[in-house]
Design goal:
repeat; 751 residues; leucine-rich repeat; alpha/beta; Protein zer-1 homolog; disordered N terminus; Leucine-rich repeat, LRR (right-handed beta-alpha superhelix); two-stranded antiparallel sheet; ten-stranded parallel beta sheet
Amino acid sequence: SPRMASDSPESLMTLCTDFCLRNLEGTLCYLLDNETLRLHPDIFLPSEICDKLVNEYVELVKTDSIFEPHESFFTLFSDPRSTRLARIHLREQIVQDQDLEAIRKQDLVELYLTNCEKLTAKSLQTLVSFSHTLISLSLFGCCNIFYEEENPGGCEDDCLVNPTRQVLVKDFTFEGFSRLRFLNLGRLIEGVNVETLLRPLASLAALDLSGIQLNDVGFLTQWKDTLVSLVLYNMDLSEEHIQVIAQLRKLRHLDISRDHLSSYYKFKLTRRVLNLFVENLVNLSSLDISGHTMLENCTIPSMEEKMGQTSIEPAKSSIAPFRGLKRPLQFLGLFETSLCRLTHIPAYKVSGDKNEEQVLNAIEAYTEHRPEITSRAINLLFDIARIERCSQLLRALQLVITALKCHKDDKNIQVTGSAALFYLTNSEYRMEQSVKLRRQVIQVVLNGMESYQEVTVQRNCCLTLCNFSIPEELEFQYRRVNELLLNILNQSRQDESIQRIAVHLCNALVCQVDNDHKEAVGKMGFVMTMLKLIQKKLADKTCDQVMEFSWSALWNITDETPDNCEMFLNYSGMKLFLECLKEFPEKQELHRNMLGLLGNVAEVKELRPQLMTSQFISVFSNLLESKADGIEVSYNACGVLSHIMFDGPEAWGICEPHREEVVKRMWAAIQSWDINSRRNINYRSFEPILRLLPQGISPVSQHWATWALYNLVSVYPDKYCPLLIKEGGIPLLKDMIKMASARQETKEMAR
């Protein structure tokens, strides 16, 4: 298949940055007094590296739950002589006043502060230190940056009675920011006088006033010779606004879009307004009018509209006012408007809800600053992925991953995004996805499970994980995924469907993995969690998939893992085994899983004495006659008894039933099995079976072991012949044939 863009390896720069950030002490820093990070004195880093370190750090804190933020991280960049910063993007709670304060000596050219709600007016003062170099600044969603704390009186007690009041700073302006060209004040709080704030700026090129209500925007004309980009998203427009915009003749990008669900909105777009823009804003290459209602018909008659091939030529435009454009627009935002469904739209890229391309353009354009719109666009993508087939799968996946990362705490995006991921990762799209991309999906899914205890998100995330090969594809996050699933299963109130999927995943995760993985998961409380689930189901007298999967998971996790076998016994596992057997005498699958697990316990010499009770031995002996699940239950019961017999007559510490009587029943059982039985079992190693061959103390155990090997290598030769040879089975069989104590039929089978 052709190499996918997303498949190319990370750059060396990215890998090194990531490594250094995860190992600051071992690489760039040392710890002073065991708490403060300090840069090694011989380290000098240019802005290309420092910018990446800071921006990646913010990304890691935001999207990687295992990554620990450092209190003193930003102080590493306090001295421009050793570390240079130029362009940095900081987000959300990660950044506080003291962090900006720490880097105030840097000559920043670009500073994006997005939704940094912890920043207060102290940071406004810090901004002044960057005023002589700053070209680009965003304060989007920094809702407290114009507030300072006013402390009434210095007295301690008084402070408790009358906590600090927040006061709006009125006197700050961009005086002295002589190079500032690009400014985003989106979602600025009410009460700040935007006109006064901006007046000192001589030549603004781009201004974003999203979500701000201004009745008078006449002051914008002071930049009519320089302003090339203006965003007034969700501003209540009026005729006055339109007249001002029409004077900004240098505009190349204009966004007057709105969220049509946000509030009642008087203004309606008319043909005249669009004509005015087309006539006056001759350089316009990007226009967003998403969410607007059209007051009158801007479209050409439908007969004419449907004619010919779809075209982006302005002369053929289905939207009449755009026939006056000199050339097609680079971008036209028509999301949630009726216009996006027309045939001829004079733009290279259109955001809308008509088809996959328009929907992806919408997600791409609005993710960063407009989660409320993005979640609705992702919802449309979800429908496309579910009902039709996605033709731009990689792009769709990347966009959803980005949205989920960017808005980790936005419930709507987490719900719609996790649902879309389920459909975008299912098997029909499998071939088109690289390992790297699939790992990114797993990361955001686990982030979602961590941040959201909400049922829908949890269910979507668990279902999405089922689209992966388990355990292989989850191996790189093995501990984390197990912790999250156990966490779900340990909640007191549980959604049935989530419980079922989570147990299924847990079972798959401990199947066919190394013993150290199993031990680690055992230590996390896996055994206890499964036994609790079994206990609950027993109390409800239900034997469903959860019950069967729980026993199956215990069977898997105890395989050649003595610690977990011991835990099973310590947490009253045998009591539950007997109760399940009594409560559900007809459930074959259940019996097979339970006996498979007890087979694992019986392989551990130190634990066998705990199985040596009249009650248990009687139960195992009776199960020798079971016809449940073919020979599996009888076979496993015989396996348990074979290991117990292997300890010799002196270990038989009970009067009833007699050892000889049980031996007789074991011979009878083995002789009743069909040697060509197809099996419902999977051996990773023959070691526990092979150890029963070179001994004379229990010929029946020897016979059971030989039968097991004979059956497996004859029914599944490709899989089990190599395993038998690799684990040294051949010489053991040859030696056994020479043993006097071995039964003739055992020797025949061995031969």
